[in-house]
Write a sequence for this structure.
């Protein structure tokens, strides 16, 4: 008789947990996964996928305007209910696919919340279960404001369930979620006010890109208030009133707070077991995702390291291969490409100019701001910025940044070049595809 019910018990069927469970199962481990909600976690259900579908849907408002300059006449009508229903169908399809992936890998799926009782025992699905190893992959939760009336605040989750679009939206925050969903609402005709306590949007990104994007968002009609905090929130009839520390009383129909996410570790029994947690509640792990208790592991947003879906997937892969395979899989956290799917979108890989000046003895910077060819026949004004940051000591490209249409698709390819150690001379020697925005990266002088 086996010593434990399972070789691996995964708590949470998000991106990292599903990948770890599936690969471990394919490698011969006896695996179970507990999930209290829909499969796929935040990314599939309330994040990356529905957000990007909404971005596509909302961008047609600009596409129809561009079309007039190319001889097309149309009187477009938008129906929010159709977009939301189409999104729901796609999410349901993905949920089924995730279930199929687990089933084909021989993974047992248990519906319900899991709680750890000891280093090898959990309670899940109404019964106790044992496992040689337990992997926590419960992701993160939105941070709620601690202000008078904070219980009235909405999170980004509310956008995906809106029955009808609001007339006015207040979006608090200036990171990925705030800018992406703020851009969606703005493109669909909602009056959007972005409130941010910092000096500029997108903290941690390259300054030129941050300032460029700020200007482009305002050009599209978004109101942006910097160095401003919401001090209270109250209900006023069917709407809300937010008091700001600049003295303004901002009336809104949709008070959305996107002020960060915190690791989802409450109620799992980790404190009682003595699992070491970081200052924000994330599980502290080593390079192989093992916690302070050798049989308990964690991957993804719950470790509060790099909160990106592809990173969680890579961590799940590493964990499974390390403990159930040949251990060959490795993760390189350097130069992780990322994108903010606001409108226009922004993508980046590598060092910002400021970071480069701190890490390199000498730096060369190349930058271009231009109007994309497509918009030369459009009544709409929008600009693209591309930027390369180069280590002058060896000519190696250490940062690629772009804000403009298609930025994410372009920068994904540049990320491969950077991983390969490409130099500025090699960029220069590459013949561009003309006419494209991407060719700017190989013509910068």
């Amino acid at each position: 008789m086996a010593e434990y019910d399972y070789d691996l018990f995964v708590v949470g069927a998000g991106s990292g947990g599903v990948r770890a469970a599936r690969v471990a199962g394919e490698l011969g481990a006896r695996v179970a996964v507990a999930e209290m909600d829909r499969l796929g976690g935040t990314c599939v259900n309330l994040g990356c996928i529905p957000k990007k579908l909404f971005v596509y849907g909302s961008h047609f408002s600009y596409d129809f305007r561009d079309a007039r300059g190319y001889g097309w006449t149309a009187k477009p009508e938008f129906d929010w209910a159709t977009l939301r229903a189409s999104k729901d169908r796609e999410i349901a399809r993905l949920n089924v696919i995730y279930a199929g992936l687990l089933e084909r890998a021989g993974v047992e799926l248990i519906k319900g919340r899991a709680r750890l009782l000891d280093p090898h025992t959990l309670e899940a699905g109404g019964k106790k279960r044992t496992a040689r190893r337990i992997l926590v992959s419960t992701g993160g939760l939105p941070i709620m404001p601690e202000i008078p009336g904070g219980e009235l605040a909405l999170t980004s989750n509310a956008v995906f369930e809106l029955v009808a679009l609001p007339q006015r939206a207040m979006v608090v925050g200036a990171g990925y979620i705030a800018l992406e969903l703020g851009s969606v609402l703005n493109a669909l005709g909602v009056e959007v006010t972005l409130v941010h306590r910092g000096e500029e949007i997108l903290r941690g990104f390259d300054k030129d890109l941050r300032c460029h994007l700020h200007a482009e968002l305002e050009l599209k009609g978004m109101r942006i208030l910097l160095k401003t905090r919401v001090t209270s929130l109250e209900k006023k009839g069917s709407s809300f009133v937010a008091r700001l520390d600049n003295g303004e009383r901002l009336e809104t129909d949709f008070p959305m707070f996107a002020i960060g996410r915190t690791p989802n570790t409450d109620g799992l029994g980790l404190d009682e077991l003595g699992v070491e947690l970081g200052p924000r509640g994330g599980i502290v792990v080593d390079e192989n995702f093992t916690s302070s208790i050798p049989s308990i592991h964690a991957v993804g947003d719950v470790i509060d390291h790099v909160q990106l879906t592809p990173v969680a997937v890579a961590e799940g892969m590493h964990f499974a291969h390390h403990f159930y395979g040949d251990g060959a899989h490795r993760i390189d956290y350097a130069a992780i490409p990322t994108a903010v799917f606001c409108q226009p979108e922004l993508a980046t890989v590598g060092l910002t100019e400021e970071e480069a000046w701190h890490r390199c003895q000498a730096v060369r910077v190349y930058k271009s701001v231009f109007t994309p060819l497509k918009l030369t026949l459009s009544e709409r004004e929008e600009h693209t910025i591309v930027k390369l940051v180069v280590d002058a000591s060896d000519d190696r490209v250490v940062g690629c940044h772009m804000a403009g249409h298609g930025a994410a698709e372009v920068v994904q390819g540049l990320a491969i070049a950077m991983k390969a150690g490409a130099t500025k001379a090699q960029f220069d020697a590459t013949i561009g595809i003309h006419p494209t925005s991407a060719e700017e990266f190989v013509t910068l002088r």
In short: The chain has eleven helices and 21 strands. Residues 80-104 form the longest helix (25 residues).
